Amino acid sequence: MNPQTAEPETAQFARLAEFIDGLGLGHEPDERQAALIEVLHEAQEIFGYLPEDVQEFVAEKLRLPLGRVFGVISFYHYFTAEPRGKHQINCCLGTACFVRGAEKIIEQFEDTLGIKMGEVTPDKNFSLGTLRCVGACSLAPVVIVDGKTYGRVTPEQAAEIIAEYN
Amino acid sequence: MTTLTRLDTVEAFGELREFLRLRQDPRQTVISVCGFTGCKVNGSDAVAEALKEEVRKQGRDDVPVKVTGCHGFCEKGPLVVILPQGIFYQKVGLKDVEAIVEKTVIGGEIIPSLLYTDPRTKEQYKLESEVPFYAKQERVVCRHSGKIDAARIEDYIAVGGYSSMVKVLTEMAPEEVIDEMKRSGLRGRGGAGFPTGKKWEFCRMAEGDEKFIVCNGDEGDPGAFMDGSIMDGHPHAVLEGMLIGAYAIGATHGYLYVRTEYPLAIRSLTRALEQAHDYGLLGENILGTGFSFDLELTRGAGAFVCGEETALMASIEGNIGSPRQRPPFPAVSGLWGKPTNINNVETWANVPVIIDRGAEWFASIGTEGSKGTKVFSLVGKVNNTGLVEVPMGMTLREIVYDIGGGIQKGRKLKAVQTGGPSGGCIPESLMDLRVDFDELVKAGGMMGSGGLIVMDERTCMVDVARYFLEFLTDESCGKCNPCREGVQQMHNILERICAGEGKDDDIDILLELAEYVKDSSLCALGGTAPNPVLSTIKHFRDEYEAHIRDHKCPGGVCKALIQYGINADACKGCERCAKECPQDAITGEKKQPHTLDREKCIKCGVCFETCPFDAVYTE
Ligand SMILES: Cc1cc2nc3c(=O)[nH]c(=O)nc-3n(C[C@H](O)[C@H](O)[C@H](O)COP(=O)(O)O)c2cc1C
Ligand code: FES
Q: Quick check: A156 contacting B, CB < 8 Å?
């Protein structure tokens, strides 16, 4: 069982295999390389993060060197090889949010959860991260929890938002 | 003909368009609800659903409720417009739904409480076109905003969509299309402003058995959301622009590279691609003209540098997005070494209207060197945040004050930041600058993709420079030394200055480092990375000096350099700050001036933000 998603891992690997097979990739290495990022998006969606066994699985399925898969994962901010919390709180740190006090919001979340940016709470319920603009700049500062957007967030709201997911 | 059938001929397309056009009744009442991020966050989805339910309940299900792309005035969302009159309702909630249907849709009455009131003049406006936020705008790219449902290709075809593509395929040679683009004067909207027609010509002339075109939808500038809203609200305009470009260039395959942080844009484009395919407007032998073109969407994965064209291509190929030296330019050697033409979202979206209305018409808008309009995201400390489209050459003052309604809380404007992390800060003294590609560069700014971030007197310009350099340190791909090390060093110095540990020669060292990084970096990320530092030193040197010499932060932002206090004369004893203070550092009797204990204060600034009487100060 994957503690991140509460789904048996074998079922998750089967889903990923099905996705990759469904792409109908040919033998061209270029073509398989070009599919890598999309496959990693799908894998992260399924597993919640990209641990080593998933990286190996992807490398094998796409017949790409493991190092290349790892390189791509570490280059792109969106991909993570570390497990994340059940709920992901992401504070926008784009310019519009920054000038409207995003750093204060971030401090408040850090204080309330007792963790720093990029960390996971000991009970694994929350991870805290930043994003660089989600296009809701008019409503800055913006916080996103599991895909739900909160606009015009005030420091006092941090506790309320956290409570919604506790 | 109401079901989706593949169109095999140009004639069949013409028939469909006529059918759709005739079916439209210009007098028909339509309820248009903005469905883009800003309004969604404020609950527009629920409002739209409730309106659909309500028209049914009140027996008027002949009135369509359309969820449309961004209307622009995000500050006042959810926005609802009643067509054909264009009655403009703002901040609409579920409680207003019944009245909108009963009073306005059925009764033809206006609901004054939902109208926009100008806070300065107290004047109320009934129609969208009269609202000051819209009155000075000129909508070319966003001309269908609020009028068509982005999820329905039929809506787009009915207003003339895909007709420019048909015109090009049936009446124009590729060279003529390129000539039209050149004469229009369109310059790339992705930042550098390269003439689009010329770029297409390079790629057309390049040797190659296969050519590609790419839409750059990475929109990496934080604080900019124009491209996202165009992809969400006008997906077919982007597709049609690319089809026209593909024909002109001789490309058979294209890619839409979209930022993964934009789920709405991804959904909208994916749907648009399916619809265009189903109708035969994309794929093999389009409308029987013999022209074939296919297009696929690929997602980014959160890397700012991937907006740079060579890095973007590496990313489409599935590699890490590191830029490479140019030349060779993508037009000669791009994706998989084949000739490739990359344009920005807004550039592509301008193409159909240029073909439709002609190069001369387009060139009549704007300034000598910058034609057409530009879509900006107007954000930061301005009253009316949102998406604005104005002719090139409008002054910053007009944009910030006439459209943007001035600065929040009546504070003073300090600067407008343009061009994203590679751009610069334009000070208040230059607000009469006419915004176009060339004027902005002269002022030390940059058009960039179109984020306008308004900063007020409570913004610290050293802190802003520090912020951008932090961003760029994170985003530098690390391939070349000047960018990796130089930007990091500049960032370290700025951090030090903000922490109150600035040294006398810091400004000189920053300037020196800036020159070095600018001249010797591999790609434009490094080449432009010093810009935020250079432009803030140029226009706000006194703020740097105040930090370094006097240990003061004039903006009242840098924690190490400020103290909070309460002005006893202004404090009315409302107790709000005391309630909000996380440290219980503020005490006092109700209706009596309060005091702040600096020992306990952690300088979070909550009191400053909450005080309705501006009694909290920093020093
Ligand atoms: C660091 C960096 C980031 C960039 N980010 C973007 C971007 O997010 N969107 C974009 O359209 N162009 C971006 N560009 C510009 C592109 O390299 C390219 O010039 C542009 O997509 C060309 O399109 P245009 O001619 O239509 O403007 C960026 C450039 C650099 C150097
Ligand atoms: S800057 Fe935060 S959403 Fe754009």
A: yes
Which residue in B453, B473, B557 has the most chain A C-beta atoms within 10 A of its own C-beta, making it the best mutation to test that interface?
Answer: B453
Same domain, A64 and A92: no
- Interchain proximity B38–A151, CB inside 8 Å: yes
Which of B85-94, B126-135, B312-321, B560-569 shows the lowest mean pLDDT across its residues? B560-569
Contact of A83 with chain B, judged by CB distance below 8 Å, is answered with no
Whichever domain contains A126, its CATH number is 3.40.30.10
| A52 found inside a domain | yes
**In this predicted structure, what is the pLDDT of residue B477?**
86
Rounded-to-5 percentages of helix, strand, coil across chain A? 50, 15, 40
pLDDT at A1: 54
Q: Using CA atoms, how far apart are residues A89 and A164, in angstroms rounded to an integer?
A: 12
Average pLDDT, chain A: 93
Number of domains in chain A: 2
* Pair (A104, A156) in one structural domain: yes
Q: What is the pLDDT of residue B339?
A: 98
User: What is the pairing mode between strands B294-299 and B340-344?
Assistant: unpaired
Task: Return the ligand 2 atom nearest residue B224 CA.
Answer: 4
Each residue's pLDDT tens digit, A132-144: 899 899 999 999 9
Among A37, A98, A100, the residue with its CB nearest the CB of B318 is A37
Average pLDDT over residues B545-564: 93
Whether residues A51 and A91 fall in one domain: no
Question: Strand B373-380 relative to strand B451-456: parallel, antiparallel, unpaired?
Answer: parallel
Same domain, A158 and A91: yes
E-assigned strand segments in chain A: 87-92, 126-131, 143-145, 148-150
CA atoms within 13 A on the CB side of B568: 5
Burial class (CB in 10 A: 0-12, 13-18, 19+), B575: middle
B568: CB partners within 8 A, 6+ apart: B593
Domain C-terminal end among A75, A109, A135: A75
pLDDT digits (tens, 9 = 90+) for B382-441: 999 999 999 999 999 999 999 999 999 889 999 999 998 888 999 999 999 999 999 998
Task: Indicate if the pLDDT at residue B7 is higher than 90.
Answer: yes
Same domain, A58 and A117: no
Q: What residues of A are in contact with residue B297 (Cβ under 8 Å)?
A: none
**Mean pLDDT, chain B, as a whole number?**
94
Residues 116-145 of A with CB under 8 A from B: 131-140, 142
Domain assignment present for residue A57? The answer is: yes
Q: Are residues A140 and A92 in the same domain?
A: yes
- A chain contacts of residue B75, beta-carbon cutoff 8 Å: 138
Average pLDDT, integer, range B548-560: 92
Q: What is the C-alpha to C-alpha distance for residues A72 and A53, in angstroms, rounded to an integer?
A: 16
Domain final residue pick, A53, A75, A97: A75
Residue A110 falls within a domain, yes or no?
A: yes
A66 in any annotated domain = yes
The residue range of the domain holding A40 is 3-75
Q: Considering only alpha carbons, which residue of chain B is nearest residue A138?
A: B385
pLDDT reading at B3 higher than 70: no
Answer whether residue A37 shows pLDDT above 80.
yes
| Cβ-contact B75, B41 below 8 angstroms | no
Q: Are residues A94 and A66 in the same domain?
A: no
Q: Do A67 and A93 have their domain in common?
A: no
